[in-house]
């Protein structure tokens, strides 16, 4: 492929609006261009990478019997009304009308569509299980699209759906997908981890996320590739290393999710779902007399604990939420933070939001900062399990400017339900007791769900079982963020190349270091001077030979200065660069391996063998 025929609009500088390195490099290296906020065009290089990712997926899904199809993006709202999600999905749903004023949406996901397709075609359990998927654009009206491809309004997604007559069959397919996803991400060269996930708007209860782990900036060496004349990082002057550290610190650590994992164990979960070990122990502390005390101008946990000279963990804070129009009181230990996802999952509610202060005042007779559960009746009170073992706690007195000391469960207030509601902290013991919890940033790249009959019940998607009875089909759902994968790969494979000039000066620059299986081309042939007949003849000869060996080759046939060609080649990030320069007439070329920075001069006849040896 001739580079002069491709659209690869590289930039001299990093784009000023980029916050993460993947976005910056995709823009600068000419892989993508923003069309509008959260909407990108995938230029030829990016499209080639995406197609390679898709082919890896297709190969692995073939192995588990998943069949590819393509559903429409423009969907009738009627299907979403059947499932109930047209009203509950929220503001991210693109809604529109056609010329007849009928309601349509742009598909953010396709559970309803796939359920309707299968419902209308499959009537017997004998035709199950059925396992289908598609790779297509999805649309969500993100309030604040950001981080390039990581949070957009239009994105590419692989969404799969399986249909079963029994749960054993669902479990088998779910496990097949888990293994297939692990193979896909391994082939993509990603550092990733399967974790316990939240079903969210999908409606699934049993789910697993796959998170690409994003590195922090503490180990500079992980980000560097040294040129051939730098033997080790110790040669680089401290001032240059400091500049590199400042460059790394410019970019946010990508990852909208916090991964919680057990150091020394196997446990891993999204922060929204993570738990720590809880061992309830009976307290034999004497219950003291309830005492009402004035706490003027003390409203926050910190202010009340300081005023009363106690630790925050000796307070119980009272929060009020509106869950599907019902007010719910939530109790937590004073130094804990509520995990709203856990609360939503416990309640099974579609909507959850903090209650308005006027609604709280009507219920409790006090404003925020003085709320408490003592004597509270006719409202559901849900408490974190830590509250159950607390004695003689401080709580709001439901009177502005007052708190109770020595409040005790059972005597002074009641709780409807206890459950795990708190957000875990680093250093706590894993729930299985194996290791302590650590936090890392991560990018969600895949998610699998056991949906059960959530959609088949709502949409009357039934089959006849072996006894002739009508039963709802049991469903699974399996997604991969294909365009997100592109960003995740760059977050992990971006590198800073450090060179030493003939004047003993050190220079560094960003570049992409694609894994071999995903690079848009395998080899970059760069003739330094396109007017040199010997160089161009050798370039054509090498292109033909390499293509004959199955390599995908990009030839920089542009009439540009050598410095421009090398800078663009470094940005594009192909695994191997072959430079055809002044020694072309002698059949001598220079080979550079991007992953290691290794550079060798060889005879043209040794090129194929050299590439095979150095690339392994």
Automatic annotation (TrEMBL):
Aminoacyl-transfer RNA synthetases class-II family profile domain location, by residue?
48-502
EC class name: ligase
What's written under domain? Consists of three domains: the N-terminal catalytic domain, the editing domain and the C-terminal anticodon-binding domain.
User: What GO biological process, any one, is recorded here?
Assistant: prolyl-tRNA aminoacylation
The reaction(s) annotated as catalysed by this protein in its Swiss-Prot or TrEMBL entry are:
tRNA(Pro) + L-proline + ATP = L-prolyl-tRNA(Pro) + AMP + diphosphate
* Record bears the keyword ATP-binding: yes
Please name the gene that encodes this protein: proS
Q: Which GO terms describe its cellular component?
A: cytosol
> What does the subunit comment say?
Homodimer.
User: Which protein are we looking at?
Assistant: Proline--tRNA ligase
Give the record's family classification. Answer: Belongs to the class-II aminoacyl-tRNA synthetase family. ProS type 1 subfamily.
Q: Does the keyword ATP-binding apply?
A: yes
Concerning Pfam families, the annotation shows: HGTP_anticodon, tRNA-synt_2b, tRNA_edit
Q: Where in the cell is it found?
A: Cytoplasm
UniProt entry keywords in alphabetical sequence: Aminoacyl-tRNA synthetase, ATP-binding, Cytoplasm, Ligase, Nucleotide-binding, Protein biosynthesis
What role does this protein play? Catalyzes the attachment of proline to tRNA(Pro) in a two-step reaction: proline is first activated by ATP to form Pro-AMP and then transferred to the acceptor end of tRNA(Pro). As ProRS can inadvertently accommodate and process non-cognate amino acids such as alanine and cysteine, to avoid such errors it has two additional distinct editing activities against alanine. One activity is designated as 'pretransfer' editing and involves the tRNA(Pro)-independent hydrolysis of activated Ala-AMP.
Q: Which GO terms describe its molecular function?
A: aminoacyl-tRNA deacylase activity; ATP binding; catalytic activity, acting on a protein; proline-tRNA ligase activity; transferase activity
Which PROSITE patterns did the record assign?
A: AA_TRNA_LIGASE_II
């Amino acid at each position: 492929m001739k580079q002069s025929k491709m659209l690869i609009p590289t930039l001299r500088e990093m784009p000023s609006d980029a916050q993460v390195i993947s976005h910056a490099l995709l823009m600068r290296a000419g892989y993508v261009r923003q069309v509008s906020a959260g909407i990108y065009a995938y230029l030829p290089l990016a499209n080639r990478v995406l197609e390679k990712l898709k082919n890896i997926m297709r190969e692995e899904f073939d192995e588990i019997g998943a069949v590819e199809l393509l559903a429409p993006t423009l969907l009738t709202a009627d299907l979403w009304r059947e499932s109930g999600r047209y009203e509950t999905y929220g503001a991210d749903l693109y809604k529109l009308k056609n010329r007849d004023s009928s309601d349509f949406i742009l598909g953010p996901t396709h559970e309803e569509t796939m359920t309707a397709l299968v419902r209308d075609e499959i009537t017997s359990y004998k035709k199950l299980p059925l396992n289908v998927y598609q790779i297509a654009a999805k649309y969500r009206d993100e309030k604040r699209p950001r981080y390039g491809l990581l949070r957009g309004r239009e994105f590419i997604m692989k969404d799969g759906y399986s249909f079963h007559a029994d749960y054993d069959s669902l479990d088998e397919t779910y496990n097949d997908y888990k293994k297939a996803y692990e193979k896909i991400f391994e082939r993509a060269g990603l550092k990733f981890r399967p974790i316990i996930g939240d079903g969210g708007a999908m409606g699934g209860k049993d789910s697993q996320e796959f998170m690409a782990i994003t590195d922090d900036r503490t180990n500079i060496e992980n980000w560097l590739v040294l040129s051939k004349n730098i033997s080790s990082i110790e040669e680089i002057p401290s001032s240059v290393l400091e500049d590199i550290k400042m460059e790394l610190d410019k970019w946010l650590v990508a990852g909208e999710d916090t991964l919680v994992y057990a150091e020394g164990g196997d446990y891993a979960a999204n922060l929204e779902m993570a738990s720590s070990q809880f061992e309830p122990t009976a307290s034999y502390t004497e219950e003291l007399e309830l005492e009402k005390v004035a706490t003027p101008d003390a409203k926050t946990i910190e202010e009340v604990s300081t005023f009363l000279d106690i630790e925050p963990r000796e307070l119980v804070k009272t929060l009020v939420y509106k869950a599907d129009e019902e007010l719910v009181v939530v109790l937590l230990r004073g130094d804990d933070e509520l995990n709203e996802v856990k609360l939503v999952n416990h309640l099974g509610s579609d909507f959850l939001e903090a209650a308005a202060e006027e609604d709280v005042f009507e219920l409790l007779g006090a404003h925020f900062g003085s709320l408490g559960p003592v004597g509270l009746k006719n409202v559901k009170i849900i408490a974190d399990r830590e509250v159950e073992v607390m004695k003689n706690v401080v709580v709001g007195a439901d009177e502005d400017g007052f708190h109770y000391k020595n409040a005790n469960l059972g005597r002074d207030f009641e709780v409807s339900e206890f459950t795990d509601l708190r957000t875990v902290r680093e250093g706590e013991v894993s729930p299985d007791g194996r290791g302590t919890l650590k936090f890392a940033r991560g990018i969600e790249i895949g998610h699998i769900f056991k949906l059960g009959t959530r959609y088949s019940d709502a949409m009357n998607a039934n089959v006849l079982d072996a006894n002739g009875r009508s039963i709802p089909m049991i469903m699974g759902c399996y997604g991969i963020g294909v365009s997100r994968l592109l960003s995740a790969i760059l977050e992990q494979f971006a590198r800073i190349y450090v060179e030493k000039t003939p004047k003993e000066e050190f220079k560094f620059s960003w570049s992409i270091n694609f894994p071999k299986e995903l690079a848009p081309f395998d080899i970059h042939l760069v003739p330094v001077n396109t007017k040199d007949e010997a160089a161009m003849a050798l370039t054509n000869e090498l292109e033909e030979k390499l293509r004959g060996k199955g390599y995908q080759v990009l030839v920089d046939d542009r009439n540009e200065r050598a410095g421009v060609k090398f800078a663009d080649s470094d940005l594009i990030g192909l695994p191997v660069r072959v430079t055809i320069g002044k020694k072309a007439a002698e059949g001598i070329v220079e080979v550079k391996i991007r992953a290691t920075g290794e550079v060798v001069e060889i005879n043209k006849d040794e090129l194929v063998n050299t590439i095979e040896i150095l690339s392994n």
